[in-house]
Amino acid sequence: MLVDRFGRIARKLRISVTDRCNFRCTYCMPEEGLNWLGRDQLLAYEEIYRLARLFVSQGIHTIRLTGGEPLLRRDLPVLVEQLMGLEGLRQLAVTTNGTRLPELGPELIAAGLTSFNVSLDSLDPQRFEKAVRRKALAKVMAGLDVLASYEQVKVKLNVVVMRGFNEDEALSFAKLARERAWSVRFIEFMPLGSEDEWGHSRVVPGAELLKQIQQVYPLVQVETAGASPAARWRFADDTSAQQKAELGFINSVSEPFCHSCDRIRLTSDGQLRTCLFSLTETDLRGALRSGASDEQLLHLMQVAIQAKEAGHLINQPQFERPLRTMSSIGG
Predict the structure, then answer these.
(1) Residue 315: exposure state from Cβ atoms within 10 A (0-12, 13-18, ≥19)
(2) Which domain holds residue 281?
(3) Is the pLDDT of residue 195 over 70?
């Protein structure tokens, strides 16, 4: 097992397959974009598979593919099919902005993928365009419609909430969750962009949104934040057999859950990060390409995870932003 010095066991791995993105979200990157990695700097699918196999052999049971925008990576269904064959892997998921789901959704599902997180920060077309600097809400909703046509597919919407921008849409998203039997995750605004104008005054605590929603839709708690980053709630009047409609609150700033974190990250250029806000990384790509054996790679993984930070320091005076932005780290 991959255990850190605080006794936390790594169970979930996020793998970024590209740093490129077709959005320019205001809290993630500048309007002109970033200096993208060259193809030779990205991990090849064979390298991703080898590292994933080693991680799974050490107890990782959930993998999430991220970016940038992961659906921009060529032949992504091929990687999905490869990873789905890993013995010991319980779940494979993807986080996407949804714009390429109309074309690629069926291929990904055919390859075995059934869990999709779609980033959607506003249901208002003009507000959405302002947030991502693209006129794309209709394309995202079309992608969600494609996913909804597959009964086996689980859909979660990721909503980054920023005061003065979209906190007034909480009820609209709750209504959407009820209507479509989806899970909506409200995520507190975190300092992960180079020009995001982050400040504590722009953070909307999840507790505030929860109170607002409960005044209209009574909720029943399903799970507290812990191994899962979201405190999960269902609608009290939901009498359906599956009860898929759900709200989650990822209160990373107001209620940190670092003490129970079981997640690690692999960037698209092969750097192992033990925390989203890490200031250090472990170069697995360099080791791979230098001919490291499986045993040597496992040793690097174990040493890195043993040194995992106690938690982020967002609420502390000594907090330092990570050197990478969110799209470079992996969502």
Answers:
(1) exposed
(2) 12-329
(3) no
277 and 312 in contact (C-beta within 8 Å)? yes
Q: Give the closest residue to 10 by CA, choosing from 229, 302, 271, 251.
A: 302
Give pLDDT, residue 319. 86
154 forms beta bridges with 115
Q: Which neighbouring-strand residues pair with 232? A: 223, 248
Torsion sign across C-alpha atoms 174, 72, 283, 57: positive
**Alpha carbons 323 and 277: distance in angstroms, whole number:** 9
Q: Hey, what are 135's tokens?
A: 């006129």
Buried b (16+ CB within 10 A) or exposed e, 24-34: bbbbbbeeeeb
Give me the number of domains the chain comprises. 1
Cβ atoms of 274 and 329 within 8 Å: the answer is: no
In a domain, 7, yes or no: no
Q: What is the DSSP letter of 38?
A: P
Least confident of 14-23, 31-40, 53-62, 287-296: 31-40
Q: What is the CATH number of the domain that holds 47?
A: 3.20.20.70
Residue 104 placed within a domain? yes
Contact 77, 107 (CB under 8 A): yes
What are phi and psi for residue 127, nearest 5 degrees? -65, -40
What is the DSSP annotation of 203-228? B--HHHHHHHHHTTS-EEEEE-SSSS
Residue 5 lies in a domain: no
- Cβ atoms within 10 Å of 49's Cβ, excluding its own: 16
User: The whole model's pTM is what?
Assistant: 0.95
Assign 259 a pLDDT band (cuts: 50, 70, 90): very high
Measuring CA to CA, which residue among 95, 12, 65, 14 is closest to residue 262?
12
Query: Is 1 domain-assigned?
Result: no
More confident call, 129 vs 244:
129
Q: Return the pLDDT at 120.
A: 97
Instruction: Find out whether 190 and 252 touch, Cβ atoms under 8 Å.
Output: yes
Cα separation of 55 and 307, whole Å? 17
